[in-house]
Amino acid sequence: MPHLTTSHAFHETGPAQQHLLLFSVTADIPATHALHSACELLSAATHTLDAAATGTLCIDAHQAFLLCHALRAVKATVDALGQDNAL
After folding, report:
1. What is the Cα gyration radius of the chain?
2. How confident is the model at residue 86 (pLDDT cuts 50, 70, 90)?
3. pLDDT at 16 over 70
4. 31-76 residue pLDDT tens
5. Of 21, 56, 65, 68, whose CB has the highest number of CB atoms within 10 Å?
6. How many structural domains comprise the chain?
7. At residue 17, does pLDDT exceed 50?
């Protein structure tokens, strides 16, 4: 039986006391596809951060937010694979 994602919401928004989550990982995506997408996001973030770290690229606050969001999406994907699944 293939490993599948479970629904997993992420990205807080609105007043903190309301615990609103704007985005989610879709349930029932095969793990191989979900991990491939997560790896692509990690690769893009790593290349950008490497360029910033070596001084070949300056990133502004908007780009930093996009990198942070991409990394949160990767974490949510991995978390969605770990929920209710025997890895």
Report:
1. 15
2. very low
3. yes
4. 999 999 999 999 999 999 999 999 999 999 999 999 999 999 999 9
5. 21
6. 1
7. yes
Contacts for 5 with CB less than 8 Å, ≥ 6 apart: 25, 26, 27, 28, 29, 31, 34, 77, 80, 81
At position 13, the amino acid (one-letter code) is T
35 in a structural domain:
yes
Q: Would 12 be classed as within a structural domain?
A: no
DSSP three-state, residue 33: helix
- The label of the residue with tokens 């995506």 reads 29
Note whether residue 70 is domain-resident.
Answer: yes
Closest C-alpha among 72, 58, 65, 63 to residue 25: 72
| Tokens linked to 26 | 């879709």
- CA 68: distance to chain centroid? 9
Nearest Cα to Cα of residue 71 among 45, 37, 34: 45
The structure's pTM equals: 0.86
Q: What are residue 59's phi and psi, to 5 degrees?
A: -110, 145
